[in-house]
């Protein structure tokens, strides 16, 4: 049985500038560093691949310098592209400004990844054991959302589908969003995105509403809360808050992507949703201690990180027992 991640989202090139703070309107800042790196869906794919999952890409890459750059990055990570490159467009790009507090601001330019047709996706075949993923970015583009929604709805019923609505959720037409949510097996989103879909409330209330009103076929939802960890709510009624890990963050770009990739990879290896969420929290924590969006750790690094944290908790417990 196959155990692949079939990624049908988008990949772009990130142009990353590090600055102490965003410039005021009409002023200019000099960046302390600059890098050109693969971004977008690439970050999620890398997280899954580095934690032991075979990854294939069923989205669209372009023809031009940015498309060539992404193809080289895919090859370096062992990620196969199933589709032919666009004959007329280069891949898109995104300017990311990382400020001194590790937060980021983006300006993006859509390219080939924003134009998807069913004919283009014809080579993308799924097999038993595969998990399919897409993000809200591809669904926000007028030139890709209808074909992608049709393709998702036509997936075999036994193929799990994972969806991340992303910060552009407000740009996805509600009918398209509703169709995709109705086919979702696992929804992973941050707190703002969850509220955008299901309305205001505490995280547990919103998660229950997501399952009962929007993701009727889902096994569960994950609501990410950055350094605080995440809430996992299952369709069978189980809910747990999975704590995050305190680390010194230097770059939060790609942390959500890393979390989703690690979570899906862990599920595919048979971990429970709770175990998978803790594994994903550790992956995201490690990623923010490193510069660059595709800074996902390996599975071995995550296991070492968790083992160290477990030993520290055990030692602390023994110290507390000795003083009581």
TrEMBL record:
<dbReference type="InterPro" id="IPR002173">
    <property type="entry name" value="Carboh/pur_kinase_PfkB_CS"/>
</dbReference>
<keyword id="KW-0418">Kinase</keyword>
<dbReference type="Pfam" id="PF00294">
    <property type="entry name" value="PfkB"/>
</dbReference>
<feature type="domain" description="Carbohydrate kinase PfkB">
    <location>
        <begin position="4"/>
        <end position="295"/>
    </location>
</feature>
<keyword id="KW-0808">Transferase</keyword>
<protein>
    <submittedName>
        <fullName>PfkB family carbohydrate kinase</fullName>
    </submittedName>
</protein>
<dbReference type="InterPro" id="IPR011611">
    <property type="entry name" value="PfkB_dom"/>
</dbReference>
<dbReference type="GO" id="GO:0016301">
    <property type="term" value="F:kinase activity"/>
</dbReference>
<dbReference type="InterPro" id="IPR029056">
    <property type="entry name" value="Ribokinase-like"/>
</dbReference>
